[in-house]
Design brief:
The structure holds 2 protein chains of 2 kinds. Chain A is of the alpha/beta class. Chain A is 35% helix and 25% strand. Chain A folds into 2 domains: 169 residues, P-loop containing nucleotide triphosphate hydrolases (Rossmann fold); 69 residues. Chain A has a 6-stranded mixed beta sheet, with helices on both faces. Chain A has a 5-stranded antiparallel beta sheet with strand order 2-1-4-5-6, with helices on one face. The chains are: A alpha/beta, B mainly alpha.
Chain lengths: 254, 230
């Protein structure tokens, strides 16, 4: 179970932004989707969850591990949270080979000096995402889809208790997206790790649909009965549009 | 080459080389520490780090004498241990270190600030500590700019004159570097020697600058795209 209760304010030049969310993601659905327009606070939520950004107030707990609690001054640093994070542009280390990238979370200080076990483990993971042939290549030599899978293997190498994927397909060209969406979904299905995916693409919601959390201008609303709501519409987009409209009205009232 | 040329040349290389090593380590350490803090204190230190760039070399020399001179703050302590930095080549290393420090510090800091913070964040979520992130992610990604800055500083160190003269003097065979030897030869009316020293000095600087260019080009040719990661 993942509990996310947090507020974070930014006082920007153009306008202020305030994120204020409070929801729980249960274990029932292995994949949760954060859906909403850009700038609605989805990435900021993941950043707080992973420990890269400190919320102003709140409480974050993942599977019984308390990671952040503002009242007691608890703030576990990102490196000890055990949360895998796949960034929007994947953020592969460009100066390291694919192999060194994947095994970066290993025990070695310098990622190029791998022990035999670490190398085997990294190669196994690469095999699983179908990339063992390019272990010696550098990220700049890979296609977008290959980079995505390397980033996934790198996050998995650390044995995370939770996996965060920030718009996993936005950096890919539209034709590739469809294939990779199904590929990723089948990889995730075999993993015993709970996953949160950010997206603003309705097609992603269709494929990954577990729990759905709708983001709108710094507020988040969990859609408890998404499958029921979805059944009333012919397309996912229409359904999401209607849900978003509701959230907008709610936001204005609040 | 006779000793009147070889001796000052080797001395210059030794002094500039050691000064570059000391300065680089210090500058990288300070850049790392100061980049992570955003207070008025770190801004003041940052300004102080740039100071040797704008101060007249003689002023730097004077401060150094106050610091490491026989009656200086550190110098008097060192004298008790039998170490005398004034009028020694080690003193010249101190002078060159201070003079070239801002060049390395500024270029290192600029290069490190150019690195997209997403890489450090990725390393954080992968369990790496800050020191490991600096040495294995940030530093390699900034290496082009840092190496260029280091070579530039070495050439500047080779040409150090003012502060070195004040701190180490101009003792032939002991503290007389290339640039000091040129001045001494010119003063003594030995135009022939001065000309030869000037030519060697110029060629060396051009060669080093070309080397800097070459290293930067080489680093760029490695599997590292300009817009790293995209």
């Amino acid at each position: 179970m993942i509990q996310i209760t947090l507020t974070k304010r930014f006082f920007g030049h153009a306008k202020d932004f305030a994120l204020s969310v409070d929801y729980v993601i249960t274990e029932e659905s292995p994949v949760a989707i954060l859906f909403g327009a850009s700038g609605s606070g989805k990435t900021l939520t993941l950043s707080c969850l992973s420990g890269l950004t400190k919320p102003d107030e709140g409480r974050i707990a993942v599977n019984g591990h308390l990671l952040f609690e503002s009242r007691h001054g608890i703030n576990v640093p990102a490196r000890r949270r055990g949360i895998g994070y796949m960034f929007q542009e994947y953020a592969l280390f460009p100066q390291m080979t694919v192999l060194a990238n994947v095994a970066y979370s290993g025990s070695r200080f310098f990622p190029s000096l791998l022990s035999r076990e670490e190398k085997t483990r990294a190669m196994d993971l690469l095999e699983r995402v179908g990339l063992s042939r390019i272990a010696r290549h550098y990220p700049s030599e890979l296609s977008g889809g290959q980079r995505q899978r390397v980033a996934l293997a790198r996050a998995l190498y650390a044995d995370p208790r939770l996996l965060l994927l920030d718009e996993p397909f936005s950096a890919l060209d539209p034709l590739l997206r469809k294939t990779l969406r199904h590929e990723l979904s089948s990889i995730l299905r075999d993993l015993p790790i709970q996953t949160i995916i950010i997206t603003h693409d309705p097609d992603d919601v269709d494929v990954f649909a577990g729990e759905l959390i709708l983001y709108h201008r710094g507020r988040a609303k969990k859609i408890e009965d998404y499958p029921v709501r979805r059944a009333a519409f012919t397309s996912t987009s229409d359904c999401l549009l209607s849900l978003q409209h509701e959230a907008e009205i709610m936001g204005k009232k609040g | 080459m006779d000793t009147s040329i070889l001796q000052p040349l080797l001395l210059s290389v030794r002094i500039a080389g050691l000064a570059t090593i000391f300065s680089s380590l210090l500058a990288l350490l300070l850049a790392w520490v100061l980049m992570r803090r955003r207070g008025p204190f770190s801004k003041i230190i940052d300004a102080l780090c740039t100071l040797p760039l704008v101060l007249p070399p003689t002023v730097i020399g004077y401060y150094l004498i106050l610091l490491i001179g026989r009656n200086g703050l550190i110098g008097s302590e060192l004298a008790e241990l039998g170490i005398h930095l004034i009028f020694s080549w080690q003193g010249a290393v101190c002078a060159a270190t201070v003079v070239i420090f801002p060049l390395i510090y500024k270029s290192a800091r600029a290069a490190l600030e150019q690195v997209d913070p997403v890489y450090a964040n990725a390393a954080r979520t992968l369990g790496a500590g800050e020191c490991r992130i600096f040495l294995t992610v940030s530093l390699p990604l900034a290496s082009k700019g840092i190496i260029a800055g280091i070579i530039l500083s070495f050439t500047r160190g080779m040409g150090e004159f003012g502060a070195t003269l004040m701190v180490a003097g101009n003792i032939p065979g002991k503290t007389q570097t290339l640039s000091l030897a040129i001045y001494a030869a010119f003063q003594a009316g030995d135009d022939m020697l001065a000309t030869r020293l000037v030519i060697i000095s110029s060629l060396l600087c051009v060669a080093l600058l070309l080397l800097a260019e070459g290293i930067v080009a080489l680093a760029g040719r490695r599997k590292r795209p300009g817009n790293a990661g995209n």
